UniProtKB/TrEMBL annotation:
The lineage of its organism: Bacteria, Bacillati, Bacillota, Bacilli, Bacillales. Belongs to the thioredoxin family. DsbA subfamily. This is Disulfide bond formation protein DsbB. It holds the Pfam family Thioredoxin_4. SUPFAM superfamilies: Thioredoxin-like (SSF52833). InterPro entries: Thioredoxin-like_fold (IPR012336), Thioredoxin-like_sf (IPR036249), Thioredoxin_domain (IPR013766). One of its GO terms (molecular function) is oxidoreductase activity. Residues 44-241 form the Thioredoxin domain. Keywords: Disulfide bond, Membrane, Oxidoreductase, Redox-active center, Signal, Transmembrane, Transmembrane helix. Signal peptide: none annotated. The chain crosses the membrane at residues 16-36.
Amino acid sequence: MSSNPAKNGKSRNPNTLAMILGILVVILAGALLYTWTHGKDTEAAELDKLPNYTDVKGMIKVDGIKYDKQPHLGTSKAPVKVVEFADFKCPACKDWTKTYMQRFLREYVDTGKVDYYFMNFAFIDRDSYLAASAGEAIYHQSNEKFWEYAVKLYENQGDENQIWATQSFILKFVKQNIDGIDYARFQQDLKNETYMLDVKEDFKTAGSLGVNGTPKFMVNGILLQDSEYKTLTAAIDKELKQAEK
């Protein structure tokens, strides 16, 4: 006996299936378009938030390094002052910190031979400036926490050729990685660009001293020609010998 599919409720109208599939495709395409457009809008908004030196107004007096305004490690009684000029987006700065910083601190800073300073030379892109201003905001709360920020940010460094140190990235990064600061204060300082003028002053001062890339080192006021560790230690040892005379 033959069965009647219509009576058994198993029939499917091909036009109905095609219509359902068409609706699903339209919904999916709309969702993808919204996600893509929203993502682009968010990205554009993030880029708009990035600072630019030309927009930062204020009086700047380029008159040598103001050591009392820079994060440092060591004692002011040390016979040698070493300044590192750095950009948080700089891969070579990241490599130097990872490879040599702890050794340098152990051999020269912890022994009282060197007072070690950090100075911004944020030149790679606009998010360099923002990352630098975030560091300044943390430094104005805690010198110790600034160094924690510097080391951990290098560990999480993005591609040098891409904008990655956006406001949203830095706020999330600091919240998740830097304890012991007033986060609400930091958030306001970052959004209000409270310390961008300090970053700009660092940049102009470093440039006036001949800094044209990162990392660069200055030993007792003398800018070194390269950033090799042996060049740095040789310059320090020379100054230490002079101090002994």
